[in-house]
Write a structure and sequence with these properties.
The structure holds 2 protein chains of 2 kinds. Chain A is of the alpha+beta class. Chain A is built from 7 helices and 5 strands; from the N terminus they run ααααβααββββα. Chain A folds into 2 domains: 61 residues; 80 residues, Glutaredoxin (3-Layer(aba) Sandwich). In chain A, helix 1 packs antiparallel against helix 2 and helix 1 packs parallel to helix 3. Classes of the chains: A alpha+beta, B alpha/beta.
Chain lengths: 159, 518
């Protein structure tokens, strides 16, 4: 995970991403994904640079950034753990899984542990509905969560 | 002959440990000095058997599953490379009852080979539909699709051919094909499976759609929760371009068609077609009022075909075998096959492609084999988070668009979630409202505010506060949302809520004991 960048670095790095992607049809989402990949979040200081580069108002860019659940205003922890909370996983006890993980990590959804090791998020469906309850840890998928797998996940994000 | 071992790379199989199994097999091969080729195929969709490893023997494929890394040594000891017996032995994959009972048209190739091998794709009939299409007049392609009876598999069930004809009949110089791969409904994974397991069939379907309507550019909008599908589709598009399946001369014809893969950003509502178009344009994923229809004014204001993954992936077989072949399957006005996704608390979960017409009971009891907890089935939600909860009393409902509609339900994207008797239907109804509140795009009032008021009212019901009055209020609110919302999010949230209230009234009765216990 990237360290919090100095605001002087944000503008040139954002501009480079815009330059690379601005000729796409409808370039804003690809650009925002690119920025989030670069910085780990979409920094506030990137917004005017995007607005300028795409000839949009800052309000328009802000509106788009804040509409989508994926774009973060702040960097996440070193690990991101997403727990599916949708119906198929509910039918297999995802509530209890979430409660246990929250207790083990000492945080609620949308929070990051104080040591910055992990951010916990709910997700509404990973398409692993025949292997419920499921989770995604740093992009890796995990199905049929049980106590053993939960302990493994917690140990991994804590290490 | 070098032995070939097939280990799925599908994310469902990966979630169940396929990667560790692949590593263990590779290690064991090295340790024993055996030369073998490991192929990472897609999944055949029998997730209760995943990771399902197959070996190619002189007598055809032999499957083993579910394989754990700890099974690998004993598999080698049992001579599994020659199909030897082992406790995980399943025999020929196409004889496994769950797979043998299916009619695989759209998913005919899914899970058999390396999804990124164009040669393997062609060896199993791939590209035949597109080859036929490039030799045909656009209007004839559209008629074939119309005559096949194919209806939108995303949930709305609108006839695909009619949508295409509308776009064909426009005179715009620029038209688009947009594939809706924002498969956000819980219990659905058919789009994911085909994108990861047979990506070329989607590319072929989109190219046919382009040629049929005069569109030269396509977009696949894939949700960000599917990173594996995004990666596979990106690679497949590149391969297709390199081999002339995409480009200025599709399969050497004068037709041009190319496409791009785009990634969503975690908004469920972008599965709604007009909100998806806004998102592709780089705007907030807010729903647009219709008319104008996307077929007339869609992406960037241009005529646009917007179809679900499975609709587009079903087109190649129609163009290969003909409209009559496809139409021959199914019942009533629901023609062809449907990939039913059996999910949740179920013993044999997975994807089951079959002609329309099986009853819900057959799907849950005979194919799914009941709950995985072994408890009685209480409710089955059909059609994702916006679908109705059906009790056992409605298990005779045939899987068909109209039959489900008659019983105040919908088949949606054909995902079904099974719940056992521990399910609390008031809690499920509350979740439906809560989910709508989280995911509402905010454009129309019934959805934006109704969902929040819905959660509050159901909470009052749960607390036993004026139950009769609040139940009437929820019913009235659902009525407003159903008829007053701009799109299916607010408009269909009443389905899970009202079906819970109607079919499971006991869960909505004041239960002071339950409240006290909490």
């Amino acid at each position: 995970m990237t360290m919090q960048p100095a605001s002087t670095e944000i503008a040139p790095r954002t501009a480079a991403i815009i330059q690379e992607l601005k000729d796409l049809e409808g370039p804003l989402l690809p650009i925002l994904h690119g920025i989030q990949e670069e910085f780990g979040h979409v920094p506030h200081d990137a917004v005017p640079v995007i607005a300028d580069g795409l000839n949009l108002s800052r309000a328009e860019v802000h509106g788009v950034v804040t509409f989508y659940h994926d774009f973060r205003a702040r960097p996440a922890g070193r690990h991101v753990l997403k727990l599916c909370q949708a119906e198929a996983c509910q039918s297999m006890g995802s509530d209890a899984v979430a409660a246990r993980i929250k207790q083990l990590l000492g945080i609620d959804f949308h929070e990051t542990t104080r040591d910055g090791s992990v951010t916990l998020e709910p997700v509404y469906c990973l398409g692993l509905c025949a292997c419920s309850p499921s989770a995604m840890l740093d992009g890796e998928v995990i199905g049929r969560l049980d106590d053993e797998k939960i302990d493994e996940i917690v140990a991994e994000v804590r290490s | 002959m070098t032995p070939r071992i097939y280990i799925p790379g599908d994310s469902g199989a990966l979630a169940l440990g396929a990667e560790k199994v692949a590593k263990a097999i590779a290690n064991e091969l090295a340790e024993r000095g055996i030369e073998a080729k490991i192929v990472r195929n897609g999944s055949r969709g029998a997730y209760f058997l995943e990771p399902m490893v197959e070996v190619a023997t002189a007598n055809g494929r032999v499957a083993y599953g579910p394989v754990k890394p700890s099974d690998v040594k004993s598999l080698f000891d049992s001579g599994f490379l020659k199909g030897g017996h082992h406790k995980r032995w399943l025999g020929a994959p196409d004889k496994i009852p769950f797979l043998a009972k299916q009619t695989r048209l759209t998913f005919a190739r899914c899970g058999i080979n390396d999804p990124l091998s164009l040669d393997a794709y062609k060896s199993l009939g791939g590209l035949k539909g597109l080859q036929n299409a490039v030799a045909m007049a656009p209007a004839d392609i559209v008629s074939q699709v119309t005559d096949s009876g194919l209806r939108g598999r995303g949930g709305a069930g609108f006839p695909t051919g009619i949508k295409w004809k509308t776009v064909l009949d426009t005179t715009s110089e620029r038209k688009y094909i947009v594939c809706n791969a924002d498969e956000g409904d819980s219990a659905t994974f058919a789009d994911r499976m085909i994108m990861e397991g047979d990506p070329f069939v989607l590319i072929e379907g989109m190219a046919i759609a382009g040629i049929a309507t005069g569109a030269t550019k396509g977009f696949v909008y894939i949700r960000s929760e599917y990173p594996h599908a995004v990666a596979t589709m990106n690679k497949a598009v590149e391969i297709a371009r390199k081999h002339g399946v995409l480009g200025v001369n599709v399969l050497g014809s004068p037709n041009a068609f190319d496409m791009e893969i785009r990634v969503g950003a975690g908004a469920y509502v972008c599965g709604e077609e007009t909100s998806l178009l806004n998102s592709l344009e780089g705007k907030r994923g807010v729903v647009r009022a219709k008319p104008p229809l996307p077929a007339i004014q869609g992406l960037f204001g241009k005529p646009t075909v917007i179809n679900n993954v499975i609709s587009l992936a079903s087109v190649p077989i129609i163009m290969d075998k003909g409209a009559a072949f496809y139409k021959d399957f199914g019942m009533g006005r629901s023609r062809g096959t449907i990939p039913i996704q059996i999910a949740g608390n179920v013993k044999q979960g997975g994807l089951f492609e079959t002609a329309f017409g099986l009853t819900l009971g057959e799907i849950v009891d005979d194919i799914g084999c009941g709950t995985s907890t072994g408890r009685p089935v209480k409710a089955v939600q059909v059609g994702g988070p916006l679908g109705a909860y059906f009790p056992r009393a409605l298990f005779d409902t045939p899987f068909d668009y109209e039959e489900f509609a008659k019983r105040d339900g919908l088949i949606g994207h054909a995902g079904i979630t099974v719940f056992d008797d521990t399910a609390d239907m008031l809690k499920q109804a509350r979740f439906a409202m809560e989910f709508c509140a989280i995911e509402s795009c905010g454009k129309c009032t019934p959805c934006r505010i109704g969902s929040t008021r819905g959660v509050e009212t159901i909470d009052r019901l749960a607390a036993g506060i004026e139950p009769e009055k609040n139940l009437a209020l929820v019913t009235d609110l659902c009525n407003t949302m159903k008829f007053g919302s701009l799109c299916a999010l607010g408009g269909f949230t009443p389905y899970p809520v009202m079906s819970s209230i109607t079919h499971f009234p006991e869960d909505f009765k004041p239960a002071p004991a339950r409240v006290a216990a909490e």
